[in-house]
Amino acid sequence: MEKKKLTSLEKQWILYDVGNSAFILLVSTILPIYFNSLCDAAGIAEVDYLAYWGYAASVCTLIVALSGPVLGTIADNQGYKKKIFTVSMLIGVLGLASLWIPTSWKVFLVLFVVAKVGYSSSLIFYDSMLSDITEPQRMDMVSSHGYAWGYIGSCIPFLISLVLVLFYQQLSISMMMAMTLAFLINALWWLACSLPLLKNYRQKYYVEKKETHVVTSSFRRLAQSFGKLRQQKKILLFLIAFFFYIDGVYTIIDMATAYGSALGLNTEGLLIALLVTQIVAFPSALVFSRLSKQYNNGTLIKICIVAYTMIALFAIQLDQQWEFWVLAVCVGLFQGGIQALSRSYFAQIIPPENAGEFFGLFDICGKGASFLGTALVSLIAQLAGNANGAIAVLAVMFLIGLFFFHKTQKIA
């Protein structure tokens, strides 16, 4: 009989989602608005601000997409996963804690890239830990709980940051001091939520070190993994599908506030709407966890892809504040489900001893797609001179992802 309660280690794994989600919520809300203020001071046009933010997000994802598979393969060696995870997490935390320093928008973007690369890299090893901390039949539930508690838990430092940023004058502090405190609070939150997992995690599945040169052997095993994908069609087709449909998901997360700001929507309204996204996503992710016990998780992923296609089509004509609120609620309903179920679906179809290696490939597809999505939206926005038309490309990506995922489902 399957245990329903979360184990101590599962809770500690979930707690890291609570910690790092604070950073990504900050990136999706306050950070682009602060960057916009730096650009305004430098005389940068709004459409160019949206493009530069998108290009920075694209650089982050490109770096992680290129380095992720190699680092993931190295992490599969005995005793390496926790070490590389720790380094990646600390780079992200220190990068976030340093964002208050620059007054130049260019230097700010460089530090943002450093923090985002650390964050994204840590998720490769964090996701691959799923095989070590729970059983295959519990992966959908544990993965969904990770996203769910990440959404609601991240609201705590975000609300504190929001009060500081919106009411800094009433608090008798400067805007710069408010942003400094916001960056430091979120960095400390991330670090504190990481410590229990760092203390108690043990790598259960690993590859025995047969050679003295770990990096050389990891490159060799990575090359072999690419070769194996031709025989493992289910994994290959899923990675192609994931590349396309997660493109839209990550692009919406990365650029929602920047998109709304470029359309001239009210800043406070945008922030509160995206807070609503987090609140809606919490019960929604838990609902998908329950549904995965009754229905095939592949069917649930398809439902999420179709829903996101409709969301992208709706966003094309968006020009009113209330429409952004509708968009925020709809994203919240499906965001946790599609991310959690995709993570656990992949963990169930790969060999657990090569989890880091395969999640590195998983990250290539996720981050590579995000690079393509943010870059395309940024480029089309600049060429067309408006942001709405650029969103249309996301609907196309979702449909391609749905097609390949359907083909994945046909393979036993």
What gross morphology would you assign?
globular
Number of domains: 1
CATH evolutionary superfamily = MFS general substrate transporter like domains
Model regions low in confidence, pLDDT < 50 over at least 5 residues: none
Question: From the coordinates shown, what is the CATH architecture?
Answer: Up-down Bundle
> How many individual β-strands?
0
Descriptive keywords:
412 residues; mainly alpha; Growth Hormone, Chain: A; 80% helix; globular
How would you concisely characterize the structure shown here?
With 412 residues, this protein is an all-alpha fold. 80% of the residues lie in helices and 0% in strands. It contains 16 helices and no strands.
Would you give an account of this structure?
This protein is mainly α and 412 residues long. The protein has one domain: Up-down Bundle (Growth Hormone, Chain: A). Helix content is 80%, strand content 0%. The protein is built from 16 helices and no strands. The protein has helices spanning 8-28, 30-41, 46-75, 81-97, 105-128, 130-133, 139-153, 155-166, 175-200, 214-228, 233-262, 267-294, 297-316, 321-349, 355-384, 392-409. α2 packs across α11, α7 runs antiparallel to α14 (321-349) and α11 (233-262) runs antiparallel to α12. The chain starts with 7 loop residues before the first helix and ends with a helix.
